[in-house]
Design a protein that fits this description.
The structure holds 2 protein chains of 2 kinds. In chain A, strand 7 and strand 8 form a beta hairpin. The radius of gyration of chain A is 13 Å and the shape is globular. Chain A has no helices and 11 strands. Chain A starts with a strand and ends with a strand. In chain A, strands 2, 4, 5, 6, 9, 10 and 11 form a 7-stranded mixed β-sheet that branches. Chain A has a 4-stranded antiparallel β-sheet with strand order 1-3-8-7, with no helix packed on it. Helix content of chain A is 0%, strand content 53%. By secondary structure, chain A is mainly beta. By secondary structure, chain B is an all-beta fold. Chain B is built from no helices and 12 strands. In chain B, the strands form 3 sheets. In chain B, strands 2, 5, 6, 10, 11 and 12 form a 6-stranded mixed β-sheet that branches. Chain B is globular, with a radius of gyration of 13 Å. Classes of the chains: A mainly beta, B mainly beta. At the A-B interface, strand 5 and strand 10 of A face strand 5, strand 6, strand 10 and strand 11 of B.
Chain lengths: 114, 113
Amino acid sequence: KAGVTQTPRYLIKTRGQQVTLSCSPISGHRSVSWYQQTPGQGLQFLFEYFSETQRNKGNFPGRFSGRQFSNSRSEMNVSTLELGDSALYLCASSPTTSPTDTQYFGPGTRLTVL
Amino acid sequence: AQSVSQHNHHVILSEAASLELGCNYSYGGTVNLFWYVQYPGQHLQLLLKYFSGDPLVKGIKGFEAEFIKSKFSFNLRKPSVQWSDTAEYFCAVRNQAGTALIFGKGTTLSVSS
């Protein structure tokens, strides 16, 4: 099976712009989670989607939003970018929302905000 | 709120040395515990996980971890490390209610040959 894919792999934006990142889960996986990874804060949970519904949300401002489509693909959007949004954004998929499911991670999108 | 602490930020070992990375979590109920590894330039991948049964779990590449409920710990061990084990290691916890998977801040392991 193909793994989790994320596009684009790299992005450079300027402050105030908005950005959309895309994630395609492993075939058959219906749960998608997003994380922000930075050297200082490590991996921080953004949100989780299952069957097009947001199930969990992390402690991030409303500028961060996401959605999931009927084919389980997911997008996240960050509006009004700030310098501090520079990070590696990781997407992970799992078959279901079971807490024992393994989450499989993609390679990430490296976002740089100038 | 749940949290995960990894006490060692950076560990430096020589090949063949034994490894133990600490992980403690704060949550009073039933938890599911994971160790993930991120090799340089690669995706995060699962090393091992525990959700019930034998508290000593074995994972890939010779790693194992022991769940000690009374200590809220899930330490990762490997009897003899190799240069190829150089990576960042993350402990993570998810409670039975299925709330978010919470990660520790990671431990960087450097192994010299």
